[in-house]
Amino acid sequence: MRENPDRKGISTAAAAALAVVLLIVGVAAGYFAGSATVTPQTTTLTQTVARTITTTQTVSAAQTVTQTVTQTATATATTTVTQPVTQTVTATRTTTVTTTAAAPGGLPEKVKIGVLLPLSGELGSIGVRMLYGAHIAAKIVNDSGGIGGRPVQIIAEDTAAVPDKALDAVKKLVEVQGVQVIVGPATSVEAATIAKYLNDRKVPAISMSATAAALSNLAKQYGDTYFWRVVGSDTIQARALADIMKEKGFKRIVTFVVSNDYGIGMEQMLLAQPGMRDRVVLTIRYDPTKGDYRTELEQVRAANPDVIFYALWVESGKIVFRQALDLGLDKIPTMGGEGMADEAFFADPRAAEYMVKTGLFGTRPTYDPKTYSYQIFYNMHKRLYGDESSLFADYTYDATMVAILAVGHAGVYDGAKIKNALALTGQYYIGATGMKAMDPSTGDLLSQDYLIWRVELKDGKPTYNFNYGFWSLGTGVVWK
Amino acid sequence: MVDGLSLNIAQILFNSLLTGSLYVLAAIGLTLTYGILKFPNVAHAEFITFGAYIAYTVADIWKLGFEAGVLAAFVATGLLGVASHLFLFGPLIRKGASILHLTVASVGYGIVLRYAMQEIWGRKDLYYSAYYPGFDLGPIRVTPLWLSFIFLAVAIVAVFHLLLTKTKIGKAMRATSNNPSLAQASGIDTRKIILLVWFFGSALAGLGGVMKASDTRITPVLGWDILIMSFAAVIFGGVGSIYGTIFAGYILGFVENLGVIGLVALKLSTEYRFLLGFLVLVFALIFAPQGIAGITFKSIRRRLSSSG
Fold first, then answer.
1. Chain A: nearest CA to B276, how far in angstroms?
2. I want to staple A114 with a disulfide (CB 3.0 to 4.6 A). Which of A29, A182, A413, B86 is the partner?
3. Are the beta carbons of A134 and A183 closer than 8 angstroms?
4. Taking a C-beta distance cutoff of 8 angstroms, is the pair A354, B131 a contact?
5. What is the DSSP string of A67-115?
6. Between residues 235 and 264 of chain A, which touch chain B (CB distance below 8 Å)?
7. Tell me, what's the ipTM?
8. In angstroms, rounded to a whole number, what is the distance separating the alpha carbons of residues A33 and A44?
């Protein structure tokens, strides 16, 4: 475990006294605990398995006080405060533990929750409204007394959805503000850029909207899980899409994707689904800067597909659609993932015409808003910001809630401990957007529901019908 | 399994002709100004964009029809080129600016133009409302727009050929390009010729802009998408040589489209298509440093024998 010299807890004198008095006990406890505390990341999602959660509390630059909390199934708890060589605390529990009830002594005067969002730039208008979600979560928690009496403070930094700026922003949060848990960032490229830094500084981040499948590998790549998300990875979405394709009976599928992490990720995820390799007859990765896709589309026609699966960027995507219409590909049905449900495509009337003619349909993450937990969020949103909830403000709210609850659960304001608490916290938190159980080995949400949308003509105008169908792990494909 | 690799040769050739026509239109102006003034005008990219916006203004804001828009783009961009020479490059040359000065000035001028256009027409993509649905012409899928642009490019090339070889002005242009002082000494009004070159070179760029925009969309960076390949065509064709540039434009268009097919078959991103175009360029220049215009049978044999 690492020391964090700039953190303050109990006063130095008290701690020193405590340390001296309990030195002998510590040595003894350390002897017994030592072997059990070598691997702090053995958190699993099975309730009955005993879990080991470690916490370290630095008192001064030189001294460290550690607690050993052991809770057994019979609910007998032994507490030992000590200073062993390993500087570790273990909390072994076999009963279910939900949230807080931690000693407030371990928390600072104000619990800072860092938020990384695009508050300017192209996604700025959305980002500003996403931030409402974070403030709503803080408001709800603070209204009921904060975390063990300590109020939550939201500290937002603007990333403009630019990876370099995101890295600057996260450094500012951690190094200047001393933030130990972060909500965000919003986009997958930003997440990939700051992941190494998060791991190096042991500060967990919980994204509300980064869905790229490749982000599941960050934990393996950097050795530990410091990137989490409360929105489903595209891996689940690919499963939904593959299910839909099979249900529709498509046997000659062409994938047409933008050549970047988003597009290639979608293509690879789709191909990884069982039985899809035989059905996908052609894969095309196009250059978004080329601005002319006739030859690519000609290859699509030559493959004689019964569906084209698109993962495009809006700017180049509009050109692809326009040229597909020109080339007479408007008889082949089309599908897409979440990114294709974007009204910006309609800016080009030719592109819109193609989407309507081919009946473009696809998936998008969804949840049931008719739940009590959604109402809590919704009512506060209505009170503070009006009743029109904005895109992803709900997921931002949940990401913030999970962060707050994890701090409470950890009982100390320390990134590594908060990270260890995340999996369990998520498992027992049902938020506005559904259950937030996350896999501690990848940081991924375990389940995600998807609605099926379709581009249709409504009053002569192209629109997205978001009520075309539904998919979840439990129900499979349901048409409406 | 790749059973998508069934080739429609006719369509590929047609697509190449379309891509090539665009490069030719954009590159002729570049090579003309280079031939006479001996500097690469980077602001040429913005001339391309300018043409697209002018056509939009005339066709879709003033609602005078797409054809009027094309014509207006031709004339207005030509005049922009003339104005650029009169007020910027001409005075610079008279003050003794070097190639480097002129090139840097053209970069700066291009940026001014781009942001001015962004200010006037906005940053959002624009589209021409004119639309002509495509149809099948034998094995080839065409749209009237594509056909007319190929026709336009080929016609312009033909007219240019006649202009250069048969008319006095054309001969004067070639003379000025070859040796400005000598041309002046033999009684040619080189100032007039230079302005004429600016007009036609820029007007063709404007036309290329309309062509690209009608096929895709109008954005302030439209010209930049084409500029690199246009420069490649200019260098490949032999800087300053009009015929070489025309030939190179179509060759590059063809290689690019062929490259896309190869890349798709190899399951690679079509982003690498530039690589193929430039690979052709590099190899061509190793054997013919003067570009296509410098290629003669003798020069190839000499190079081959000298390199062992």
1. 14
2. A182
3. yes
4. no
5. EEEEE-TT--EEEEEE--TT---EEEE-S---S----GGGS-SSEEEEE
6. 254, 259, 264
7. 0.78
8. 20
pLDDT band at B232 (very low <50, low <70, confident <90, very high): confident
Contacts of B268 in chain A (CB under 8 A): 285
Nearest CA in chain B to A303: B4
Domain boundary assignment for chain B? 5-307
The CA distance from B273 to B261, in Å, is 10
Cβ distance of A298 and B15 shorter than 8 Å:
yes
Angle between helices B44-56 and B9-37 (to 10 degrees): 120
Identity of the residue in B3, B12, B18 whose CB atom sits nearest the CB atom of A281: B3
| pTM, full prediction | 0.72
> What is the nearest CA distance from B113 to chain A, expressed in angstroms?
21
Tell me the pLDDT tens digit for each residue of A187-239: 999 999 999 999 999 999 999 999 888 899 999 999 999 999 999 998 899 99
Per CATH, which fold does B5-307 belong to?
ABC transporter involved in vitamin B12 uptake, BtuC (1.10.3470)
Rounded distance between C-alpha atoms, residue A45 and residue A72, angstroms: 18
For residue A302, give how far its alpha carbon lies from the nearest alpha carbon of chain B (Å). Answer: 6
- Contacts with A298 from chain B: Cβ below 8 Å: 8, 11-12, 15
Q: What span, in angstroms and rounded, lies between the C-alpha atoms of A453 and A340?
A: 10
Interchain contact A282–B (C-beta under 8 A): yes
> For chains A and B, what is the number of CB pairs under 8 angstroms?
99
Q: Could B273 and A290 be called an inter-chain contact, meaning their C-beta atoms sit closer than 8 Å?
A: yes
Tens digits of residue pLDDT in A364-386: 999 988 999 999 999 999 999 98
How high is the pLDDT of residue A330? 93
- DSSP sequence for A383-430: HHH-S-PPTTHHHHHHHHHHHHHHHHHH-S--HHHHHHHHHHHHHT-E
Q: Indicate the residue type of A320.
A: V
Residue A156 forms beta bridges with which residues? A115
Q: Which residue in chain B has the smallest CA separation from A330?
A: B134
d(CA A246, CA B41): 55
The pLDDT confidence band at residue B227, using thresholds 50, 70 and 90, is confident
* H-run or E-run covering A458: strand A449-458
Alpha-carbon gap, residue A93 to B285, rounded angstroms: 74
